[in-house]
Design brief:
2 copies of one chain form a homodimer.
Chain A lengths: L10 H25 L2 H8 L3 H7 L3 H21 L7 H18 L1 H12 L6 H24 L8 H17 L1 H8 L4 H17 L5
Helix pairs in contact in A: 1-2, 1-4, 1-6, 4-7, 5-8, 5-10, 6-8, 8-10
Chain A binds a DNA duplex (30 and 30 nucleotides) through α1 and α3.
Chain lengths: ~210, ~210
DNA sequence: CACAATTTTTACCAAATGGTAAAGCAACGA
DNA sequence: TCGTTGCTTTACCATTTGGTAAAAATTGTG
Protein backbone atom coordinates (compact mmCIF):
# COMPACT_ATOMS: atom_id res chain seq x y z
CA UNK A 1 0.00 0.00 0.00
CA UNK A 2 2.79 2.38 -0.78
CA UNK A 3 0.96 3.88 -3.72
CA UNK A 4 -0.88 7.15 -3.38
CA UNK A 5 -4.48 6.61 -2.32
CA UNK A 6 -6.90 8.15 -4.86
CA UNK A 7 -8.73 10.26 -2.30
CA UNK A 8 -11.66 12.02 -3.83
CA UNK A 9 -11.32 15.81 -3.71
CA UNK A 10 -13.32 17.81 -1.20
CA UNK A 11 -16.08 20.13 -2.28
CA UNK A 12 -13.84 23.11 -1.63
CA UNK A 13 -11.10 21.60 -3.73
CA UNK A 14 -13.39 20.93 -6.63
CA UNK A 15 -14.72 24.45 -6.52
CA UNK A 16 -11.37 26.19 -6.29
CA UNK A 17 -9.69 24.10 -8.95
CA UNK A 18 -12.62 24.94 -11.21
CA UNK A 19 -12.28 28.66 -10.41
CA UNK A 20 -8.58 28.55 -11.14
CA UNK A 21 -8.91 26.68 -14.41
CA UNK A 22 -11.66 29.00 -15.59
CA UNK A 23 -9.59 32.06 -14.84
CA UNK A 24 -6.51 30.46 -16.34
CA UNK A 25 -8.29 29.67 -19.58
CA UNK A 26 -9.21 33.30 -19.94
CA UNK A 27 -5.71 34.54 -19.21
CA UNK A 28 -3.75 31.96 -21.18
CA UNK A 29 -5.94 32.27 -24.26
CA UNK A 30 -5.73 36.06 -24.15
CA UNK A 31 -2.06 36.53 -23.30
CA UNK A 32 -0.47 33.29 -24.42
CA UNK A 33 1.60 31.06 -22.21
CA UNK A 34 4.50 33.46 -21.96
CA UNK A 35 2.39 36.53 -21.40
CA UNK A 36 0.17 34.99 -18.75
CA UNK A 37 1.02 35.62 -15.11
CA UNK A 38 0.04 33.81 -11.95
CA UNK A 39 -1.08 37.11 -10.48
CA UNK A 40 -3.55 37.63 -13.30
CA UNK A 41 -4.91 34.13 -12.91
CA UNK A 42 -5.14 34.46 -9.13
CA UNK A 43 -6.97 37.74 -9.45
CA UNK A 44 -9.37 36.25 -11.98
CA UNK A 45 -10.06 33.34 -9.69
CA UNK A 46 -10.46 35.56 -6.64
CA UNK A 47 -7.69 33.79 -4.78
CA UNK A 48 -4.25 34.75 -3.51
CA UNK A 49 -1.23 33.63 -5.48
CA UNK A 50 0.09 31.28 -2.80
CA UNK A 51 -3.38 29.85 -2.57
CA UNK A 52 -3.24 29.11 -6.28
CA UNK A 53 -0.03 27.26 -5.74
CA UNK A 54 -1.65 25.17 -3.07
CA UNK A 55 -3.86 23.65 -5.75
CA UNK A 56 -1.40 23.51 -8.64
CA UNK A 57 2.32 22.95 -8.62
CA UNK A 58 3.04 25.88 -10.89
CA UNK A 59 2.19 27.83 -13.97
CA UNK A 60 3.06 25.01 -16.31
CA UNK A 61 0.88 22.50 -14.48
CA UNK A 62 -2.15 24.73 -14.73
CA UNK A 63 -1.53 25.20 -18.42
CA UNK A 64 -1.03 21.53 -19.13
CA UNK A 65 -4.06 20.54 -17.08
CA UNK A 66 -6.12 22.95 -19.11
CA UNK A 67 -4.79 21.61 -22.39
CA UNK A 68 -5.28 17.95 -21.65
CA UNK A 69 -8.83 18.47 -20.43
CA UNK A 70 -9.54 20.43 -23.58
CA UNK A 71 -7.98 17.85 -25.85
CA UNK A 72 -10.47 15.20 -24.83
CA UNK A 73 -13.37 17.42 -25.80
CA UNK A 74 -11.55 18.32 -28.96
CA UNK A 75 -11.22 14.75 -30.14
CA UNK A 76 -14.82 13.75 -29.65
CA UNK A 77 -16.30 14.96 -32.93
CA UNK A 78 -13.66 13.14 -34.95
CA UNK A 79 -14.27 9.94 -33.03
CA UNK A 80 -17.92 10.11 -33.96
CA UNK A 81 -17.15 10.02 -37.68
CA UNK A 82 -18.89 6.79 -38.54
CA UNK A 83 -17.77 4.47 -41.30
CA UNK A 84 -21.26 3.01 -41.53
CA UNK A 85 -23.08 6.29 -42.15
CA UNK A 86 -23.54 8.19 -45.38
CA UNK A 87 -20.07 9.53 -46.27
CA UNK A 88 -20.98 13.04 -47.35
CA UNK A 89 -23.41 13.52 -44.47
CA UNK A 90 -20.94 12.13 -41.98
CA UNK A 91 -18.24 14.53 -43.09
CA UNK A 92 -20.60 17.48 -43.24
CA UNK A 93 -21.82 16.54 -39.79
CA UNK A 94 -18.24 16.65 -38.61
CA UNK A 95 -17.79 20.08 -40.14
CA UNK A 96 -20.93 21.31 -38.43
CA UNK A 97 -19.94 19.84 -35.10
CA UNK A 98 -16.44 21.29 -35.27
CA UNK A 99 -17.76 24.71 -36.24
CA UNK A 100 -20.22 24.68 -33.36
CA UNK A 101 -17.41 23.89 -30.99
CA UNK A 102 -15.28 26.74 -32.30
CA UNK A 103 -18.18 29.16 -31.95
CA UNK A 104 -19.18 27.98 -28.50
CA UNK A 105 -15.71 27.47 -27.07
CA UNK A 106 -13.57 30.19 -28.64
CA UNK A 107 -11.21 30.44 -25.70
CA UNK A 108 -10.45 26.75 -25.82
CA UNK A 109 -9.87 26.94 -29.54
CA UNK A 110 -7.49 29.84 -29.11
CA UNK A 111 -5.60 28.12 -26.34
CA UNK A 112 -5.06 25.11 -28.53
CA UNK A 113 -4.12 27.20 -31.56
CA UNK A 114 -1.62 29.16 -29.53
CA UNK A 115 0.07 26.01 -28.35
CA UNK A 116 0.35 24.58 -31.86
CA UNK A 117 1.53 27.92 -33.18
CA UNK A 118 4.50 27.81 -30.84
CA UNK A 119 5.45 24.35 -31.97
CA UNK A 120 3.28 22.41 -29.51
CA UNK A 121 6.22 22.05 -27.11
CA UNK A 122 4.05 20.80 -24.28
CA UNK A 123 1.72 18.43 -26.09
CA UNK A 124 3.75 16.66 -28.74
CA UNK A 125 3.38 13.47 -26.76
CA UNK A 126 -0.38 13.77 -26.86
CA UNK A 127 -0.33 14.52 -30.57
CA UNK A 128 1.57 11.38 -31.48
CA UNK A 129 0.05 9.09 -28.86
CA UNK A 130 -3.62 10.00 -29.03
CA UNK A 131 -4.34 12.17 -32.01
CA UNK A 132 -2.20 10.47 -34.63
CA UNK A 133 -3.69 6.95 -34.27
CA UNK A 134 -7.18 8.38 -34.45
CA UNK A 135 -6.21 10.58 -37.38
CA UNK A 136 -4.73 7.65 -39.28
CA UNK A 137 -7.79 5.52 -38.66
CA UNK A 138 -10.15 8.17 -39.93
CA UNK A 139 -7.99 8.79 -42.96
CA UNK A 140 -8.39 5.15 -43.81
CA UNK A 141 -12.15 5.37 -43.42
CA UNK A 142 -12.22 8.30 -45.79
CA UNK A 143 -9.99 6.43 -48.23
CA UNK A 144 -12.42 3.53 -48.11
CA UNK A 145 -15.24 5.85 -49.07
CA UNK A 146 -13.19 7.19 -51.94
CA UNK A 147 -12.30 3.74 -53.20
CA UNK A 148 -15.97 2.86 -53.16
CA UNK A 149 -16.72 5.94 -55.23
CA UNK A 150 -18.97 7.37 -52.54
CA UNK A 151 -17.16 10.70 -52.31
CA UNK A 152 -14.88 12.52 -54.68
CA UNK A 153 -11.21 11.45 -54.64
CA UNK A 154 -9.66 13.88 -52.19
CA UNK A 155 -6.56 13.63 -50.06
CA UNK A 156 -7.97 12.41 -46.74
CA UNK A 157 -5.34 14.04 -44.55
CA UNK A 158 -5.59 17.40 -46.25
CA UNK A 159 -9.36 17.19 -46.20
CA UNK A 160 -9.25 16.90 -42.43
CA UNK A 161 -6.73 19.72 -42.22
CA UNK A 162 -9.04 21.90 -44.27
CA UNK A 163 -11.96 21.10 -42.04
CA UNK A 164 -9.94 21.98 -38.97
CA UNK A 165 -8.64 25.27 -40.31
CA UNK A 166 -11.87 26.53 -41.82
CA UNK A 167 -13.86 25.82 -38.70
CA UNK A 168 -11.39 26.96 -36.09
CA UNK A 169 -10.67 30.24 -37.83
CA UNK A 170 -14.05 31.48 -36.65
CA UNK A 171 -12.63 31.40 -33.15
CA UNK A 172 -8.94 31.99 -33.73
CA UNK A 173 -9.25 34.87 -36.17
CA UNK A 174 -12.41 36.28 -34.66
CA UNK A 175 -10.74 39.61 -34.00
CA UNK A 176 -9.97 40.04 -37.67
CA UNK A 177 -13.45 39.05 -38.76
CA UNK A 178 -15.07 41.47 -36.35
CA UNK A 179 -13.23 44.31 -38.00
CA UNK A 180 -13.78 43.17 -41.57
CA UNK A 181 -17.45 42.33 -41.22
CA UNK A 182 -18.13 45.30 -38.91
CA UNK A 183 -21.78 44.95 -38.02
CA UNK A 184 -22.47 41.55 -39.49
CA UNK A 185 -22.41 38.37 -37.50
CA UNK A 186 -19.83 35.93 -38.89
CA UNK A 187 -21.72 33.06 -37.34
CA UNK A 188 -24.68 33.53 -39.60
CA UNK A 189 -23.14 32.66 -42.92
CA UNK A 190 -20.39 30.41 -41.62
CA UNK A 191 -22.46 27.25 -41.48
CA UNK A 192 -23.96 27.75 -44.91
CA UNK A 193 -20.64 28.64 -46.47
CA UNK A 194 -18.76 25.66 -45.09
CA UNK A 195 -21.57 23.32 -46.02
CA UNK A 196 -21.53 24.61 -49.58
CA UNK A 197 -17.75 24.38 -49.79
CA UNK A 198 -17.34 20.87 -48.49
CA UNK A 199 -20.42 19.55 -50.24
CA UNK A 200 -19.15 20.69 -53.61
CA UNK A 201 -15.74 19.23 -52.83
CA UNK A 202 -17.02 15.86 -51.69
CA UNK A 203 -19.85 15.24 -54.13
CA UNK A 204 -18.85 12.11 -56.04
CA UNK A 205 -18.25 12.69 -59.72
CA UNK A 206 -21.32 11.72 -61.73
CA UNK A 207 -20.83 9.71 -64.85
CA UNK B 1 11.55 73.69 -40.29
CA UNK B 2 10.74 72.32 -36.88
CA UNK B 3 10.01 68.86 -38.22
CA UNK B 4 12.53 66.04 -37.90
CA UNK B 5 14.86 65.93 -40.87
CA UNK B 6 14.63 62.60 -42.76
CA UNK B 7 18.32 61.75 -42.56
CA UNK B 8 19.06 58.57 -44.38
CA UNK B 9 20.35 55.82 -42.06
CA UNK B 10 24.03 54.93 -42.05
CA UNK B 11 25.25 51.59 -43.33
CA UNK B 12 25.80 50.43 -39.79
CA UNK B 13 22.29 51.43 -38.84
CA UNK B 14 20.75 49.60 -41.75
CA UNK B 15 22.71 46.47 -40.95
CA UNK B 16 21.95 46.42 -37.24
CA UNK B 17 18.29 47.19 -37.59
CA UNK B 18 18.10 44.32 -40.04
CA UNK B 19 19.91 42.00 -37.62
CA UNK B 20 17.58 42.99 -34.83
CA UNK B 21 14.42 42.56 -36.84
CA UNK B 22 15.54 39.17 -38.11
CA UNK B 23 16.29 37.95 -34.62
CA UNK B 24 13.07 39.47 -33.30
CA UNK B 25 10.99 37.70 -35.91
CA UNK B 26 12.40 34.39 -34.80
CA UNK B 27 11.84 35.09 -31.12
CA UNK B 28 8.41 36.70 -31.35
CA UNK B 29 7.04 34.02 -33.65
CA UNK B 30 8.38 31.25 -31.44
CA UNK B 31 7.55 32.65 -28.00
CA UNK B 32 4.74 35.08 -28.69
CA UNK B 33 4.79 38.73 -27.71
CA UNK B 34 4.53 38.05 -24.01
CA UNK B 35 7.04 35.26 -23.96
CA UNK B 36 9.66 37.08 -25.99
CA UNK B 37 12.45 38.87 -24.15
CA UNK B 38 14.82 41.59 -25.20
CA UNK B 39 17.71 39.44 -24.02
CA UNK B 40 16.75 36.65 -26.38
CA UNK B 41 16.45 39.06 -29.28
CA UNK B 42 19.74 40.73 -28.43
CA UNK B 43 21.48 37.40 -28.23
CA UNK B 44 20.00 36.34 -31.56
CA UNK B 45 21.14 39.54 -33.16
CA UNK B 46 24.59 39.32 -31.60
CA UNK B 47 24.20 42.66 -29.86
CA UNK B 48 23.97 43.81 -26.26
CA UNK B 49 20.59 44.71 -24.86
CA UNK B 50 21.32 48.40 -24.40
CA UNK B 51 22.63 48.39 -27.93
CA UNK B 52 19.28 47.05 -29.08
CA UNK B 53 17.58 49.90 -27.33
CA UNK B 54 19.77 52.34 -29.13
CA UNK B 55 18.08 51.30 -32.35
CA UNK B 56 14.55 50.73 -31.11
CA UNK B 57 12.63 52.50 -28.39
CA UNK B 58 11.49 49.31 -26.75
CA UNK B 59 10.07 45.84 -27.09
CA UNK B 60 6.77 47.06 -28.43
CA UNK B 61 8.37 49.19 -31.12
CA UNK B 62 10.36 46.26 -32.46
CA UNK B 63 7.24 44.15 -32.54
CA UNK B 64 5.11 46.76 -34.24
CA UNK B 65 7.81 47.54 -36.78
CA UNK B 66 7.98 43.87 -37.64
CA UNK B 67 4.24 43.61 -38.00
CA UNK B 68 3.76 46.64 -40.19
CA UNK B 69 6.54 45.62 -42.53
CA UNK B 70 5.03 42.20 -42.76
CA UNK B 71 1.55 43.48 -43.38
CA UNK B 72 2.58 45.18 -46.60
CA UNK B 73 3.90 41.94 -48.00
CA UNK B 74 0.83 40.20 -46.73
CA UNK B 75 -1.54 42.43 -48.63
CA UNK B 76 0.15 42.18 -52.00
CA UNK B 77 -1.43 38.97 -53.29
CA UNK B 78 -4.92 40.23 -52.56
CA UNK B 79 -4.22 43.50 -54.34
CA UNK B 80 -3.24 41.57 -57.43
CA UNK B 81 -6.65 39.93 -57.67
CA UNK B 82 -7.70 41.34 -61.02
CA UNK B 83 -11.29 42.04 -61.95
CA UNK B 84 -10.42 41.78 -65.64
CA UNK B 85 -8.93 38.29 -65.49
CA UNK B 86 -10.69 34.95 -65.59
CA UNK B 87 -12.53 34.70 -62.25
CA UNK B 88 -11.75 31.11 -61.36
CA UNK B 89 -8.12 31.39 -62.43
CA UNK B 90 -7.70 34.68 -60.61
CA UNK B 91 -8.98 33.21 -57.38
CA UNK B 92 -6.98 30.01 -57.76
CA UNK B 93 -3.93 32.13 -58.48
CA UNK B 94 -4.58 33.97 -55.25
CA UNK B 95 -4.81 30.68 -53.38
CA UNK B 96 -1.54 29.53 -54.91
CA UNK B 97 0.20 32.78 -54.13
CA UNK B 98 -1.03 32.82 -50.56
CA UNK B 99 0.00 29.21 -50.02
CA UNK B 100 3.47 29.89 -51.38
CA UNK B 101 3.83 32.76 -48.98
CA UNK B 102 2.80 30.64 -46.02
CA UNK B 103 5.27 27.94 -47.01
CA UNK B 104 8.12 30.33 -47.67
CA UNK B 105 7.51 32.73 -44.81
CA UNK B 106 6.21 30.56 -41.97
CA UNK B 107 7.62 32.79 -39.24
CA UNK B 108 5.86 35.81 -40.64
CA UNK B 109 2.63 33.87 -40.90
CA UNK B 110 2.92 32.75 -37.31
CA UNK B 111 3.71 36.21 -36.07
CA UNK B 112 0.60 37.53 -37.73
CA UNK B 113 -1.55 34.65 -36.52
CA UNK B 114 -0.34 35.12 -32.97
CA UNK B 115 -1.28 38.75 -33.02
CA UNK B 116 -4.77 38.08 -34.34
CA UNK B 117 -5.21 35.23 -31.90
CA UNK B 118 -4.69 37.61 -29.01
CA UNK B 119 -7.27 40.01 -30.33
CA UNK B 120 -4.98 42.04 -32.58
CA UNK B 121 -4.48 44.65 -29.84
CA UNK B 122 -1.62 46.35 -31.63
CA UNK B 123 -2.87 46.37 -35.20
CA UNK B 124 -6.59 47.03 -35.09
CA UNK B 125 -5.95 50.42 -36.64
CA UNK B 126 -4.20 48.80 -39.57
CA UNK B 127 -6.96 46.26 -39.98
CA UNK B 128 -9.69 48.85 -40.30
CA UNK B 129 -7.68 51.48 -42.17
CA UNK B 130 -5.82 49.38 -44.71
CA UNK B 131 -7.15 45.86 -44.82
CA UNK B 132 -10.85 46.54 -44.57
CA UNK B 133 -11.12 48.88 -47.58
CA UNK B 134 -9.16 46.44 -49.70
CA UNK B 135 -11.21 43.56 -48.40
CA UNK B 136 -14.48 45.32 -49.18
CA UNK B 137 -13.32 46.19 -52.67
CA UNK B 138 -12.34 42.64 -53.46
CA UNK B 139 -15.59 41.31 -52.05
CA UNK B 140 -17.39 43.54 -54.52
CA UNK B 141 -15.28 42.22 -57.37
CA UNK B 142 -16.15 38.68 -56.40
CA UNK B 143 -19.81 39.61 -56.12
CA UNK B 144 -19.64 41.04 -59.63
CA UNK B 145 -18.30 37.74 -60.90
CA UNK B 146 -21.10 35.91 -59.16
CA UNK B 147 -23.75 38.21 -60.55
CA UNK B 148 -22.36 37.59 -64.01
CA UNK B 149 -22.62 33.85 -63.42
CA UNK B 150 -18.89 33.39 -63.92
CA UNK B 151 -18.35 31.62 -60.59
CA UNK B 152 -20.70 29.76 -58.30
CA UNK B 153 -22.71 31.91 -55.89
CA UNK B 154 -20.56 31.89 -52.76
CA UNK B 155 -20.34 34.33 -49.90
CA UNK B 156 -17.39 36.53 -50.96
CA UNK B 157 -16.24 37.38 -47.45
CA UNK B 158 -16.33 33.81 -46.25
CA UNK B 159 -14.63 32.65 -49.43
CA UNK B 160 -11.71 34.94 -48.64
CA UNK B 161 -11.69 33.78 -45.02
CA UNK B 162 -11.53 30.18 -46.21
CA UNK B 163 -8.65 30.95 -48.52
CA UNK B 164 -6.77 32.64 -45.71
CA UNK B 165 -7.30 29.87 -43.20
CA UNK B 166 -6.61 26.94 -45.50
CA UNK B 167 -3.39 28.43 -46.80
CA UNK B 168 -2.00 29.82 -43.58
CA UNK B 169 -2.58 26.64 -41.65
CA UNK B 170 0.38 25.13 -43.48
CA UNK B 171 2.55 27.57 -41.57
CA UNK B 172 0.58 28.11 -38.38
CA UNK B 173 -0.22 24.49 -37.65
CA UNK B 174 2.94 23.08 -39.13
CA UNK B 175 3.91 21.46 -35.84
CA UNK B 176 0.71 19.45 -35.81
CA UNK B 177 1.07 18.40 -39.43
CA UNK B 178 4.62 17.25 -38.91
CA UNK B 179 3.45 14.84 -36.27
CA UNK B 180 0.39 13.63 -38.14
CA UNK B 181 2.06 13.14 -41.50
CA UNK B 182 5.30 11.80 -39.97
CA UNK B 183 7.56 11.27 -42.94
CA UNK B 184 5.48 12.86 -45.64
CA UNK B 185 5.94 16.39 -46.82
CA UNK B 186 2.77 18.44 -46.33
CA UNK B 187 3.87 20.79 -49.07
CA UNK B 188 3.55 18.17 -51.75
CA UNK B 189 -0.18 17.64 -51.69
CA UNK B 190 -1.16 21.03 -50.34
CA UNK B 191 -1.23 22.80 -53.66
CA UNK B 192 -3.16 20.05 -55.40
CA UNK B 193 -5.64 19.71 -52.56
CA UNK B 194 -6.44 23.41 -52.31
CA UNK B 195 -6.73 23.71 -56.06
CA UNK B 196 -9.20 20.85 -56.13
CA UNK B 197 -11.18 22.26 -53.24
CA UNK B 198 -11.55 25.79 -54.48
CA UNK B 199 -12.05 24.77 -58.09
CA UNK B 200 -14.97 22.55 -57.19
CA UNK B 201 -16.40 25.29 -55.01
CA UNK B 202 -16.08 28.02 -57.60
CA UNK B 203 -16.99 26.22 -60.78
CA UNK B 204 -20.12 27.94 -62.09
CA UNK B 205 -23.20 25.75 -62.13
CA UNK B 206 -23.77 24.35 -65.60
CA UNK B 207 -27.22 24.43 -66.98
C1' DC C 1 45.29 64.82 -37.29
C1' DA C 2 41.60 66.94 -34.58
C1' DC C 3 37.03 67.08 -33.42
C1' DA C 4 32.32 65.96 -33.57
C1' DA C 5 28.92 62.56 -34.17
C1' DT C 6 27.71 57.98 -33.86
C1' DT C 7 27.87 53.50 -31.82
C1' DT C 8 28.87 50.26 -28.03
C1' DT C 9 29.84 48.86 -23.42
C1' DT C 10 29.66 48.87 -18.43
C1' DA C 11 27.23 49.36 -14.53
C1' DC C 12 23.01 49.85 -12.84
C1' DC C 13 17.84 49.89 -11.32
C1' DA C 14 12.87 49.40 -10.20
C1' DA C 15 9.20 46.52 -11.05
C1' DA C 16 7.32 42.16 -12.00
C1' DT C 17 7.36 37.35 -11.69
C1' DG C 18 7.36 32.47 -10.26
C1' DG C 19 7.69 30.46 -6.17
C1' DT C 20 8.45 29.28 -0.83
C1' DA C 21 8.11 29.07 4.45
C1' DA C 22 5.57 29.17 8.04
C1' DA C 23 2.09 30.77 10.85
C1' DG C 24 -2.95 31.25 11.33
C1' DC C 25 -7.54 29.77 10.60
C1' DA C 26 -11.42 26.60 9.59
C1' DA C 27 -13.64 21.99 9.41
C1' DC C 28 -14.46 17.77 10.87
C1' DG C 29 -14.31 13.26 13.04
C1' DA C 30 -13.56 10.80 17.54
C1' DT D 1 -13.83 19.37 23.05
C1' DC D 2 -9.66 18.13 21.46
C1' DG D 3 -6.57 17.14 17.86
C1' DT D 4 -5.77 16.28 13.18
C1' DT D 5 -6.23 17.56 8.68
C1' DG D 6 -7.16 20.79 5.13
C1' DC D 7 -7.21 25.54 3.57
C1' DT D 8 -5.61 30.48 3.53
C1' DT D 9 -2.82 34.39 4.55
C1' DT D 10 1.32 37.03 5.50
C1' DA D 11 5.75 37.90 4.71
C1' DC D 12 9.32 36.87 1.98
C1' DC D 13 12.94 35.86 -1.80
C1' DA D 14 15.81 35.09 -6.00
C1' DT D 15 15.58 35.81 -10.73
C1' DT D 16 14.20 37.91 -14.72
C1' DT D 17 12.77 41.68 -17.27
C1' DG D 18 12.37 46.10 -19.66
C1' DG D 19 14.84 49.96 -19.46
C1' DT D 20 18.47 53.95 -18.25
C1' DA D 21 22.83 56.82 -17.46
C1' DA D 22 26.97 57.74 -18.71
C1' DA D 23 31.46 56.59 -19.91
C1' DA D 24 34.23 54.53 -23.52
C1' DA D 25 35.19 53.34 -28.09
C1' DT D 26 34.61 53.90 -32.84
C1' DT D 27 33.68 56.23 -37.07
C1' DG D 28 33.25 59.88 -40.21
C1' DT D 29 34.85 64.56 -41.69
C1' DG D 30 37.14 69.00 -42.34
Amino acid sequence: MTDTPPKKPSRIQTRNRRLILDAALEVFSRDGYGGATLDAIAKGAGLSKPNLLYYFDGKTEIYVTLLSQLLETWLDPLIELDEEGDPVEELLGYVRHKLDMALELPLESKLFAGEILQGAPRITAYLSDDLKPLFDRKCEVIQTWIDAGRIAPVDPAHLIFSIWSTTQQYADFGAQMSVLLSAEDPTKRAHAHLEQMFRSLLKPVNY
